[in-house]
Write a structure and sequence with these properties.
7-stranded mixed beta sheet; about 45% helix
Amino acid sequence: MSTNEPRAVSVGVLKGGFGKTTTAINIARELAHRNGRALVVDLDDNGHMTRQLGFEGEFTSETNHTKQVLVEGDDPTQYTVTVVEGLDLFPAHTELESVENELRNATMGSARLKKHLVDPLLGEQYEYIVVDCPANRGKLNDNAMYATQNIIIPLKPESGYDSGLSNTIQRLVEDAREYFELNILAVTPTALNSRIDQDTRDRGLLEQLNSLDIADDIIPKYARIMDDEWAAIDAGEYDGELPGIRFRGSIDSAHDAGLPVRDYDPDCDQLENYAELAHIVEQGGIQQ
């Protein structure tokens, strides 16, 4: 088991289709692999993770288990399911929107996930809890931020990645920081597939991330590019690994098979990057 402090983390970005679910499930899987047990919580109202992993029955079940836990205070362990050995899932439910509405009117409506799920399970049943957040502001996202007080932000080189990052920091992180501490553990580029010696979105995303004033504190080593490395890239003399989590067919195929990448293709070269993200969670941030 880990000798680090038990820790919860949200994986979130206020834009859909940016690799949030893939990032969350594979971080959780690597944490389980490295430490014995982990829990991933699907709070996204579209239920992509829950359905992708094969738990359509839980998603559409007659009992709205998310309401039962967050609103009524039921024991969450009676609703968790096993993804693979060591990794459990608290599934989403098709009526999450109604839970969102109830939390707006509930006493301490932003603290229910912490009180009823994270606090009872973290350090007891699980050393690490990863929350897959909705892509919109609301009480479910507020619950995730307050319960975990840590966030990893994934970004894909698609139209709107710049606004996706700025909106998430301004409307999610900065708003939350008015009330409690919220740490950005990492911002990770995902699904990179293009050359970076030309004017591509991959290059634009990497340039933006590496030029942030706090890049040393929030950009994982696998996505860092120094000025001399850019010069080598432009001169065609760069012989290092291409930065970021790269697109791989096995990652998409694992998604289709309802498995984390480790369980579908243990030889995938991108597992080391998910392992680095897991290590960042274990350490509570990027260590200089």
